[in-house]
Amino acid sequence: MIKISNLEKYYKTEEVQTIALNKLSFEIKEGEFAAIMGPSGCGKSTLLNILGLLDDPDGGSYLFNGIEVAGYNERKRAQLRKHNIGFVFQSFNLIDELSVFENVELPLIYTGVKTAERKERVHQVLEKMGIMHRRKHFPQQLSGGQQQRVAVARAVVNNPKLILADEPTGNLDSSNGNEVMDLLTELNEAGTTIIMVTHSEHDAKFSHRIIRMLDGQKVTENVLV
Amino acid sequence: MFRNYFKIAWRNLWNNKLFSLINVISLAIGLSASFVIGMMVYYDFTFDKFHTDGDRIYRVTTQFNDPEGDYFSSGIPFPLVDAVKNEVSGLETAAFFHQFTSVNVKPTGTKDLFKQQDFVVFTDQGYFDLFDYYWLAGSAQKTLSQPNEVVLTEARAKLYFPNLSPSQVMGKTLNYNDSIPAVVTGVVANFAERSDLVFQEFLSLDTASQTNIHHQISGNNWYGVYNSSQLWIKIEKGTLLNNFQAQLDDIAGKHQMEEDLKFGSSREFYSQPLNNLHFNSELGIYDPDKAVADKDVLTMLGLVAMFLLLLGCANFINLNTAQASKRAKEIGIRKTLGSSKGQLIFQFLGETFLLTLIAGAVSIILSMWLIRIFEDFIADGIDISLLMNPVILLSIGTLLVIVTIAAGFYPGIVLSKFNPVRVLKGKHTEAGGKNQLRKFLTVFQFTIAFVFIISTFLVGKQIGFLINKDMGFKTESVAFIETPHYVSSLADQELLSQKLANLSQLKKVSLGGQSPASFDQSATAFVSNYDGIERETSVRLLFGDTEYLDLYEIPLLAGRKPLNDTIKEVVINTKALEKMGFDDPNEAVNQTVTSGGVPYLITGVMADFNQGSLRKEIEPMAFVGDMWRSFSSAFQVIHFNISTENYEDLTTTLADVESMYKEVYPNEPIDLKFMDETILTFYKKEQSMSKLLNWAMGLSVLISCLGLLGLVIYTTERRVKEIGIRKVLGASIVQINTLLCKDFVILIFIAFVIAIPIAYWALDNWLQDFANRTELSWWIFAGSGIAMILLALIIMSIRTIATAMADPVKSLRTE
Ligand SMILES: Nc1ncnc2c1ncn2[C@@H]1O[C@H](COP(=O)(O)OP(=O)(O)O)[C@@H](O)[C@H]1O
Ligand SMILES: [Mg+2]
C-alpha cells in the first residue's frame, strides 16, 4: 500500500540545515499495523506528515497504492487525503468550538456526505467508541482518554484505508492508553492499515512490525508476528 | 455543512464578545451612514421619473452672459412662447404657464378666505398635453380655453370644498383677490409619485388680462424676463435636442438687445432637461420651501459614509488578522481533515457576512436616529419606511456583500494559509508577520480621523470668524418689520412708520427697502461717463428714506445724503465708485449717472459694508430713495433701533410695536426680525456642514479608537508572559505602560504627519470659496494632534495599566 524509497526531507532555519529524513526506504502492506520508534528528533513526525500527505518530501519517491504522490500539489494531496487517511495525534487536536458530535462529523462534511447519513455514521462510531452519551459535550469538558477516543472516532468515521497515529497514548495514563490501543487493534483487525509512532515498547507490542529510526534513517526492523 | 459553519461562526462571535462588539459597532456606524445617504440619493434621483417620454421634455430657460458673470433665469420673455410655437419645427408640444403668487382665494358661497395661496398658475391646454394628469372630473380636451376657468387638483378641491366630491366641485366659482371669478371646469388627481411640478390651481391663460400682472404676459416685450414665465417643450420622437437648440439660438440671435451687446452682454436660451430640474440650484424648483438637491452635498455625504465604512472594515481586518493565531489550531485540523483553502476562505467570509448582517440590523435602528440628526440635509419626504423599497433593499443587500468581501477576504486568506503541519506541532505560525498591514491600516484610520478633527476645528473657527466679523453697519438692537405690502399700500407703510416714530423706546425709525444685508436684492445698471469713457456698472440697490443711513450707522466718506425720498439722487459705495472709474470719493460727488436714461445725481459716497454672507465679496451698491415709486414702491420694510437696556423693556417694547402694527394691519400676522439674528441665517449652509463634520469627526474617532482598543487588548494578552517576566525583573508600571503604548503612539504620530498636508490642502480649497477667510493657524493642527494622541493614550492606558498592575506570578504560571 505504501512504498517509500530514498525519501528525503530538509529543514532550513537561518544558517543551520537539518536533515530530518535521510534517504529513508521501506514498504508497508495493506492491512499491516506498523510501529515507528526512535529518539526524539529523529524524524518520526516528519515521516508521518509526509505519509499523511500533509507535507511534501524534498527527494525520493512515495508510492501510495501504486501512485507516485511525491510532488503532488496541495489540492491533489488534500483530495487523496480526505478519502483515504485518518489521523490521530498525541495532543488530540479537537476543535474546541465544536461539540464531540460536530468534531467527528467534520471529515464527512468535507467528503460531501448527506446530513442524514452523516448523523447515522457519527452515531455508529460514537457508540462503538463508548462516547455516545458525551456527544453534546465540548472537548474541554472531557478527560484526556475521552478526548483521544473522540479523535480516534473522527479518524475512522470516514472508513479510511490508512490511519496514522503520532504518539496516540503520549498524553494518556496507562489504562486510558490501553483502551486506545485496543481500539486501534480492533480497527486493524477489521482491515485498516495503521502506522503508529510511539515511544512506548508496551504499545509497540500491539503492532506487527517495529521500524526503528535514528537521525532520519531506518536502523532496524523487528517483525513481531 | 452550512449549519456547521454557522455554528462555529456564531460561537466564535460569542466567545469573543468584546471584539465582536467592536466590529459590530464599527461596521454599523458606516453602514447606517451609508443607508441614510443611500436613501437620500435614491430620493433625490426619483423625482419626476414617471412622465411619459420624460426624456424628451425640456424647460426653456434664459441665460444672460455678462462680463461680470453669467446670470440664469428659469423664465423666458413672453414673446418667445409664440415664436417657439409658430417658428420652431420638431416639437411635439409646448406648454406655457405663468405663476400667480400669493393670491387670496375665496370659494363663493362660503365664508372661508384662503390667504396667500401658492402654486397657482395661468396656463392653457398645452400644459395638460405635456404633463399627464388623471382627470377626476372634466377632461384634458379643450380645457381652459375660455377666460375665468380654473382646474383644481384634488388636494385643492378638498381644501376649498371639503364636503364635495370632484364632480360636485365642477361648476363652483372661486374668487381670486376679491376681483377675479373663475369657474371650476376640471379636477385632476395629484401626482402619486415624487414630483417638483407642485402646481395646484390652473387658471386659464386668458384670465390673466384681468390681473395686475397682465403686462407680464402680453405684448411683444423681448427684454423683460420674469422668473414666473415658464416654457416647457417636448421634442418630437427621434429628433435631437441640438435641432431644437439651434432654432432657439437663431431666435435669441434675432432678439438681442442692442444696448446689452454694446457692453459685452448677450442673452441665450437654454433647454434644461426635465431630469435636471431637481438638481439645478441656479434655475431653482417651484416649491420655495424645498431645497434644490445639491449633487456636491450628496457627493460629500457619500464620501463621509464611505470613509466611515472603510474605517469599520479596517477595524475588522485588524482585529481578525491579529486574532488569527487563536484560530490556527481549528484551521490546521480542518485542513488535515481535507478542507481546501477555498472552503476555508468561504467559511470565513460566511462568518464575516453573519457579523455584517448583525451590524446591518443594528444600523437600521441607528438610521432612524441619524435621519433626525441630519434633518438639515434630509428632505422631508425621507423616512425609514423608504428602507422597504425594493431598490433600496437590493442596494443594502449588495452593500452588505461588498462590505463582507472588503472586510473578510484578506483575513480569510491569512487564515487559510496556515500550514497544518506546523500549527498542529504547536508552533503557531505567528500571524504577526502580517503586522505591516495592521500598521498600515491603523495609520490609515487615524489619518482620516485627523483630517476630520482638523477640518471640524477649522470650519468652526471660520464660522465664528464670519459671525463675529464687523459687518460695517449697526447690527445690534436693530429690528425690522416686513410689511404685508402685497395687500397694502404705501400709505399704510407710511402710517405705521409714523406711529412707530412716536414710540419713545425706539431711537430711530426708517421706512425703506430691505436691510443692508439680506437675501432679497434689487439691482440696476448705472451708466456713468467720466474721463470720456462710458461705463455700465451693475449695482445693488439699497432703498431707504433719509433716516436709513443714520439708523444703520453707515458712514459717508464724502458728500451728503439725498434730500428726500423721491428725489433722483444716489449715494454710492466705494466699490461702485471704483467700477464707475472715479479715483476719489470727492470726484464722484455731483457727477451724474443714468439708469434707463433717467439721470441721477451722486450726492455722496458711503463706506463699503457687507451685504450678506461674508462668503461673498462686497458688491457695488447704491443707496437711493424710492426710485421706482411710480411703478412699484420698494418701501416695504420698516426698520427701527431699540434703545432699551434690559430684557423686560424689550418685551414691552415689542408688544407696543405689535399693537401699533395691528392698528394698521389688523388681519395680517407680524413679520419682525432682528438684524443680528438675520445675519446668522446667512450661514445656514456652513452651520449644517459644521454639524456634519462634528459627527463625522466623532464617529471616525470613535471607530478608530475602538480599533485601537481592540489591538491594545490583543497585544497585551499576547505579551502577558513578557510583561510578567519584566515585572519580576523589576520594571515599573510606567515603564511597562510606555513599552506597550509606544508602538501605537508612533503610528498615530505618523498618521498625524500624513494628515497635515491633506487637511491643509482640503481646507485651503474650501476657504477659497470665501471672500473673508480665517487663518489656517498652526495651533489648530497642533491642538488636534495633541488632543488625539492624549485621547489614544487614555484609551490604551485603561488596558495596559491593568495588565501592568496584574500579579506577574499568575501570568507566568498559566503558560
Ligand atoms: N518545521 C520545522 N522547521 C525546522 N526544523 C524542523 C521542523 N520540523 C522538524 N524539524 C526538525 O527536524 C527534525 C525531525 O523532527 P521531528 O520529525 O519532529 O522528530 P520526532 O517527531 O521524531 O521527534 C528535528 O531535528 C527537528 O528539529
Ligand atoms: Mg514527534
Question: How is this structure best described in words?
Answer:
The complex is a heterodimer of chains A (225) and B (815). With 225 residues, chain A is an alpha/beta fold. Chain A has a single domain (2-223), classed as 3-Layer(aba) Sandwich (Rossmann fold), CATH 3.40.50. Chain A has seven helices and ten strands. Chain A has helices at residues 44-51, 74-84, 100-110, 115-129, 144-156, 174-189, 201-204, and strands spanning 2-13, 16-28, 33-37, 59-64, 67-68, 85-89, 162-166, 193-197, 209-214, 217-223. In chain A, strands 6-7-8-3-9-10 form a six-stranded mixed β-sheet, with helices on both faces. Chain A starts with a strand and ends with a strand. By secondary structure, chain B is an alpha+beta fold. In chain B, 48% of the residues lie in helices and 17% in strands. In chain B, strands 1, 2, 3, 4, 5, 6, 7, 8, 9, 10, 11, 12 and 13 form a 13-stranded mixed β-sheet that branches. The two termini of chain B are 35 Å apart. The model of chain B has no long low-confidence stretch (mean pLDDT 87). The chains are: A alpha/beta (225), B alpha+beta (815). The A-B interface holds A 45, 49, 52, 54-55, 74-75, 78-79, 81-83, 87, 89, 91, 93-98, 102, 105-107, 109-111, 154 and B 1, 4, 7-8, 11-12, 15, 329-330, 332-341, 343, 420-421, 424-426. Bound molecules: adenosine-5'-diphosphate and magnesium ion. Chain A: Pfam families: ABC_tran (PF00005). Chain A: It comes from Gillisia limnaea (strain DSM 15749 / LMG 21470 / R-8282). Chain A: InterPro entries: AAA+_ATPase, ABC_transporter-like_ATP-bd, ABC_transporter-like_CS, ABC_transpr_LolD-like, MacB-like_ATP-bd, P-loop_NTPase. Chain A: Keywords: ATP-binding, Nucleotide-binding, Transport.
Keywords:
heterodimer; A: 225 residues; alpha/beta; Rossmann fold; six-stranded mixed beta sheet; 7 helices; globular; B: alpha+beta; 13-stranded mixed beta sheet; 25 helices; 48% helix; binds adenosine-5'-diphosphate; binds magnesium ion
